Amino acid sequence: MKQARRRLRTLALVLVALTLEAQPKPAEACGGFFSAKLEERPSLAYEQTLIVYDAQKSLEHFVREVVFDKESREFGFVVPTPGRPEVFPVLKNPFKDLNERFPLFPPMRGGLTSAGAGFGGGKGGGGVEVLETKRVGSFKAFVLAARDPGAFAKWLQEQSFTSTPESDRWLAHYVALGFYFVAMRYEPVSAGNLEGGVPSAETIRISFPTPLAFYPYLEPDAAAGAKTPEQRGLEVWLIARQRLLPLAARRRPTGGVDWLRPLASGASYGGYKDNLSGALGELTSLLPAGSLFVQRFVDQKRSRAGFGDILFTPEAGGALSAERREAVRALLPLLDPELLPKGTP
Predict the structure, then answer these.
(1) Which residues contact 191 (CB under 8 A, 6 or more apart)?
(2) pLDDT tens digits, the chain, 345 residues: what are they?
(3) Smallest Cα–Cα separation from 7: which of 244, 331, 344, 343?
């Protein structure tokens, strides 16, 4: 009974209390779900992400630019998603056009305003189920469901992904929540002809059902003695039918959590659908119907230690159907660790 009341209180805070002002915390890190075969990892010092969220369909399109500067070396990363994902290459990188048309802090001018998911670990008798394998640009993408953290860690090792105690605990956290996974392994066509140290980038799209827009912000704990990156940065463009606010839990050193806005807000634009079409190219077909808002967020944290994943909640609140409310409840353990299954890392 006590846990049920806490769940309802958390849900109310997610959907209503965020209409109050909250001061963003100083920036600290980015790139939390990364796994590499070798000790030398590609550069993730700067990340650009576009989130297109269709609340009517409970569908998110997560578009991420992957920047790497050691092309002759294999590497990989794992992305957790609340619902079963699909993975696609993006032929035209949209971020240059997005930045020109929707800058983070533009000069004031006319038109500018101020700043049913499928959960579960998959079916089948094994601890890991490969739901799909496909080539996405220079990557081999695996769409996975996992019910056994140990089996999942073993599978990743067999596929040339690094396994550490920290990454194993990170994986176990999402397995307990019933999340799906996209494992991306870089496979250059002719590695012998590539020059190490030359920056390169590719853009991928991961689409998945979710009752709230989601950003996988949680990182594996840093290994003992690991150095904090000198600089890291994240820029997010969020497109939806209404303005949304980012919310994440942050663990206190003394126990318990605080609910904070982990991203600093930039400009917010309304009624710019024609301008969006010019910026998004092939991604235009993903836009929800009706009037849209484009929001800008930035993060310069060098460490995400203590932060959980980000849920984007409606700024204006509003009533939810019983079905959608129950779907939202399935995400509440991301904000309230007491709601995690027993034994979850």
Answers:
(1) 71, 72, 73, 74
(2) 555 555 545 544 544 443 333 333 333 333 333 444 444 445 456 789 999 999 999 999 999 987 765 555 667 889 999 999 999 999 999 999 999 999 988 765 443 333 333 333 334 336 899 999 999 988 899 999 999 999 998 998 888 887 788 888 999 999 999 999 999 988 876 544 444 555 678 899 999 999 999 999 998 887 666 666 666 788 999 999 999 999 999 988 888 888 899 999 999 998 667 778 888 989 999 999 888 999 999 997 878 888 999 999 988 766 667 787 888 888 988 988 777 666 666
(3) 331
Full-model pTM = 0.83
CA 189, CA 41: separation in Å to the nearest integer? Answer: 19
Burial (0-12, 13-18, 19+ Cβ within 10 Å), 187: middle
In the chain, the amino acid numbered 171 is L
